């Protein structure tokens, strides 16, 4: 009773008064807040009775700044139970040797890849089978214990780590490939298989995964599906919504839902798997996946081109579509600011002369001679018409990897440049770089670097802004300006990274209230006690 | 001076490819497998092109011995900056038996025919790891050699070569004409830029038969058998020291 009163009170207060009042109420809700830098303090004085966690490089303790950005307000801890000795005994009995309370091990699982958010979970579980996941969830549902499903922990929106003391359920030990059909190319595997391992397995058998991303060495397929990951190959093979044929999911109640079909076509009833794809672990835990894999292309070529303007880049894309159409498998771009960061922090060498924009084009086909001819004709055409000022081509594996690393390592280079604010935006193609230029002008000296890169072929921009250290004023300047800009051109505020913790409250920039209301109804239907990945994906209110 | 440099480039299986032994153990699978220029040959081409850019030599000629596909490798050298190419056509059984001795005879004949001042080769090929062609070529021509070069400096009619040897670095000064073989740290090969790739298509590749050079390709070596290295055995994880000791005893290691 008290909790619902408090929650209702909170909602009423949100519209009124200074953040200070709201914050004091939150104090009473939750003694252990560990959401860094999202926490406003009452009138500049650190609140009492709270544990301030100070960590090393990149993670800043709670500051004394008042946070006006509504979207970043820390959610109060929901009234979940806390892990008791009996709970621990139950888990240790269920998962002997795989129930982890060691704080050192927990530390890495409590912090995200970007080292920007940190939870305070005290329990990590490592099931190996779907039955174990089911038993865990059934117990947690009965006990009202919150659960944070975690795969490779490579997400960029704070969705993969706990906010408070949610139990971390890691799929890392569920890494078995269950079957692979050589004729249909359908692979069925557990959710904890690392993407790169799946790729290697398939490549030996002359197939490839339909998706590829920079995090491939760590990310797990369950997490990829739960976040509907995009990546570098989406242009050619489509999204996971098309290539995932079936799933095995465990619901919050512990019920196992198996629709792991290996069928290309199956129009029998509502397509439930689409609900779980991209649900970010809030509707159910994916435990197994069956995916349709394309054949490994015989001939892969990568061209790295330089353009002097964004307009020429778009024209190059059109020419590319026309002349390389069926063999085009990736069209990525990065701007000169990215190249400078790569040269400065990672000592990578620019393969061509300096340009304003760089394009990475990959072709994949079944006949090396045909592809080479098509590619050469295309390159001659774009060079002759001065759309492209310089470029290079690679056919050997080693050189292809080297050219790809220039695009794939931009994220890494940015982490060395200071604190990074990442935005993953979908926009109409013509508008993509305008956002970068506008942000640069708008932020001026407040930001250290404003760079743009990404899957331009899919209309997806990765806008990144760096500063020397975490800067509240800079963040407030960026948000919600960048989201408003995006909404103005009917773009998406999160093209492929998802909403997680960081963007949950900005959903209304891209989705209507009725749609969000329906999402909340579905969440309530599948997880009435809200134990699955709480505080994420859906907005706190509205 | 009208110095001409001959660069040997070998077409080998790309080093990133996983090698498979043929079921009949006579060799490795090459059909449909990605091939590319031997990495050390790339370094050799890069060095030659650098010398040309410094205007120390006049012409870079890329040479490759093999079947039709060898021309692709020559084209890559042309795209990096070589002026013209020579394809010595060797195919079938002759190509299977082509080894360092045969190649060095070919290079020696070509060097004389083309009035070469410098032959730059890669130190070894990544498929056979022989590390013999450069040395044999120099011997056949009775030219001085600077092998495992990590630095090359032209000084008039001499060339100073800093060699990587087991004990460190050795500096030798050779009177040209000479043979140099390139080691890893000599340079970083450039990416072939588009304008050069386009230009390369128009550069000349002459096709020559070994017979025309007066070279006899018979080999005195016969490959008896090719096997994969033994599979690596999986390790074992143990939980306690006691278990480690008992396992070692079981395996007869204690």
TrEMBL record, chain A:
Its main location: mitochondrion. It holds the Pfam family FAD-oxidase_C. GO terms for molecular function: (R)-2-hydroxyglutarate dehydrogenase activity; FAD binding; metal ion binding. GO terms for cellular component: mitochondrion. Residues 117-296 form the FAD-binding PCMH-type domain. It is an enzyme of class 1 (oxidoreductase). SUPFAM superfamilies: FAD-binding/transporter-associated domain-like, FAD-linked oxidases, C-terminal domain. It catalyses: (R)-malate + A = oxaloacetate + AH2. Keywords: FAD, Flavoprotein, Metal-binding, Mitochondrion, Oxidoreductase, Transit peptide, Zinc. Its cofactor is FAD. GO terms for biological process: malate metabolic process. Its EC number is 1.1.99.39. It is found in: Mitochondrion. Belongs to the FAD-binding oxidoreductase/transferase type 4 family. Catalyzes the oxidation of D-2-hydroxyglutarate (D-2-HG) to alpha-ketoglutarate. Also catalyzes the oxidation of other D-2-hydroxyacids, such as D-malate (D-MAL) and D-lactate (D-LAC). Exhibits high activities towards D-2-HG and D-MAL but a very weak activity towards D-LAC. This is D-2-hydroxyglutarate dehydrogenase, mitochondrial. The lineage of its organism: Eukaryota, Metazoa, Chordata, Craniata, Vertebrata. The gene is D2HGDH.
TrEMBL record, chain B:
The gene is ETFB. PANTHER family: ELECTRON TRANSFER FLAVOPROTEIN BETA-SUBUNIT, ELECTRON TRANSFER FLAVOPROTEIN SUBUNIT BETA. GO terms for cellular component: electron transfer flavoprotein complex; mitochondrial matrix. PROSITE patterns: ETF_BETA. The keyword Transport applies. This is Electron transfer flavoprotein subunit beta. Heterodimeric electron transfer flavoprotein that accepts electrons from several mitochondrial dehydrogenases, including acyl-CoA dehydrogenases, glutaryl-CoA and sarcosine dehydrogenase. It transfers the electrons to the main mitochondrial respiratory chain via ETF-ubiquinone oxidoreductase. Required for normal mitochondrial fatty acid oxidation and normal amino acid metabolism. ETFB binds an AMP molecule that probably has a purely structural role. Residues 25-217 form the Electron transfer flavoprotein alpha/beta-subunit N-terminal domain. InterPro entries: ET-Flavoprotein_bsu_CS (IPR000049), ETF_a/b_N (IPR014730), ETF_b (IPR012255), ETF_beta_N (IPR033948), Rossmann-like_a/b/a_fold (IPR014729). Keywords: Electron transport, Mitochondrion, Transport. SMART domains: ETF. GO terms for biological process: amino acid catabolic process; fatty acid beta-oxidation using acyl-CoA dehydrogenase. Heterodimer composed of ETFA and ETFB. Identified in a complex that contains ETFA, ETFB and ETFRF1. Interacts with ACADM. Heterodimer of an alpha and a beta subunit. It is found in: Mitochondrion matrix. GO terms for molecular function: electron transfer activity.
């Amino acid at each position: 009773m008290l909790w619902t009163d408090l929650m209702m009170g909170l909602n009423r207060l949100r519209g009124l008064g200074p953040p200070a009042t709201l914050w004091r109420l939150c104090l009473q809700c939750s003694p252990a807040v560990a959401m860094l830098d999202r926490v406003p303090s009452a009138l500049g004085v650190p609140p009492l009775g709270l544990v301030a966690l100070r960590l090393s490089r990149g993670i800043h303790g709670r500051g004394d700044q008042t946070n006006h950005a509504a979207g970043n307000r820390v959610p109060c801890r929901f009234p979940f139970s806390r892990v008791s000795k009996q709970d621990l005994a139950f888990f240790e009995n269920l998962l002997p040797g795989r129930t982890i309370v060691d704080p050192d091990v927990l530390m890495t699982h409590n912090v995200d890849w970007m080292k920007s958010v940190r939870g305070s979970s005290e329990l990590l579980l490592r099931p190996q089978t779907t039955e174990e996941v089911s038993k865990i969830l059934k117990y947690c549902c009965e006990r009202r214990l919150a659960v944070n499903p975690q795969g490779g922990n490579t997400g960029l929106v704070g969705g993969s780590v706990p906010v408070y003391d949610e139990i971390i359920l890691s799929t890392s030990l569920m890494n078995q490939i269950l079957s692979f059909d050589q004729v249909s190319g359908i692979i069925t595997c557990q959710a904890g298989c690392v993407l790169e391992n799946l790729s290697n397995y398939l490549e030996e058998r002359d197939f490839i995964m339909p998706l590829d991303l920079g995090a491939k060495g760590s990310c797990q397929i369950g997490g990829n599906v739960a976040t509907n990951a995009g990546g570098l190959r989406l242009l050619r093979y489509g999204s996971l919504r098309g290539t995932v044929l079936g799933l095995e999911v465990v619901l919050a109640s512990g019920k196992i839902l198996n629709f792991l079909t290996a069928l290309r076509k199956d129009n029998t009833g509502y397509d439930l798997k689409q609900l779980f794809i991209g649900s970010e672990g809030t509707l159910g835990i994916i435990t197994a996946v069956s995916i349709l894999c394309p054949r490994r292309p015989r001939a892969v070529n990568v061209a790295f081109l330089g353009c002097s303007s964004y307009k020429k880049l778009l024209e190059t894309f059109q020419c590319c579509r026309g002349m390389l159409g069926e063999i085009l498998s990736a069209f990525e771009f990065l701007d000169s600011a990215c190249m400078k960061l790569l040269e400065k922090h990672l000592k990578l060498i620019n393969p061509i002369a300096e340009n304003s924009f760089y394009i990475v084009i990959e072709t994949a086909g079944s006949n090396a001679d045909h592809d080479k001819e098509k590619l050469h004709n295309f390159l001659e055409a774009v060079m002759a018409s001065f759309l492209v000022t310089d470029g290079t081509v690679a056919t050997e594996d080693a050189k292809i990897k080297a050219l790809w690393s220039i695009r794939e390592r931009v994220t890494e280079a940015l982490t060395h440049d200071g604190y990074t604010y990442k935005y993953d935006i979908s926009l109409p193609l013509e508008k993509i770089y305008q956002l970068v230029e506008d942000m640069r002008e708008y932020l001026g000296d407040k930001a250290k670097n404003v760079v743009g890169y990404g899957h331009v072929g899919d209309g997806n921009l990765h806008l990144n802004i760096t500063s020397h250290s975490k800067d509240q004023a800079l963040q407030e300047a960026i948000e919600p300006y960048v989201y408003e800009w995006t909404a103005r051109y009917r773009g998406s505020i999160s093209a492929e990274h998802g909403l997680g913790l960081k963007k949950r409250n900005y959903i209304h920039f891209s989705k209507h209230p009725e749609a969000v209301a329906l999402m909340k109804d579905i969440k309530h239907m599948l997880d009435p006690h809200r134990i699955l990945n709480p505080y994420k994906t859906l907005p706190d209110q509205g | 001076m009208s110095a001409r440099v001959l660069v040997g480039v070998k077409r080998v299986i790309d080093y990133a490819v996983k090698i498979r032994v043929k079921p009949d153990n006579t060799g490795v699978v090459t059909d449909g497998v990605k091939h590319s220029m031997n990495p050390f040959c790339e370094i050799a081409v890069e060095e030659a092109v650098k010398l040309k850019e410094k205007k120390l030599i006049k012409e870079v000629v890329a040479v490759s011995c093999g079947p039709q596909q060898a021309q692709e490798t020559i084209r890559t050298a042309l795209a990096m900056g070589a002026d013209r190419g020579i394809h010595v056509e060797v195919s079938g059984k002759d190509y299977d038996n082509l080894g360092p001795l045969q190649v060095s005879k070919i290079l020696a004949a070509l060097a004389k025919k083309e009035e070469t001042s410098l032959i730059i080769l890669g130190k070894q090929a990544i498929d056979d790891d022989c590390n013999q062609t450069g040395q044999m070529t120099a011997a056949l021509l009775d030219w001085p050699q600077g092998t495992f070069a990590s630095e090359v400096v032209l000084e008039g009619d001499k060339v100073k070569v800093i060699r990587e040897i087991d004990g460190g670095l050795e500096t030798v000064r050779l009177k040209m004409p000479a043979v140099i073989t390139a080691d890893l740290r000599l340079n970083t090969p450039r990416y072939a830029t588009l304008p050069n790739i386009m230009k390369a298509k128009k550069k000349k590749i002459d096709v020559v038969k070994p017979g025309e050079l007066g070279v006899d390709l018979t080999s005195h070596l016969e490959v008896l058998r090719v096997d994969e290295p033994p599979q690596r055995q999986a390790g074992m994880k143990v939980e306690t020291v006691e278990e480690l000791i008992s396992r070692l005893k079981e395996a007869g290691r204690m």
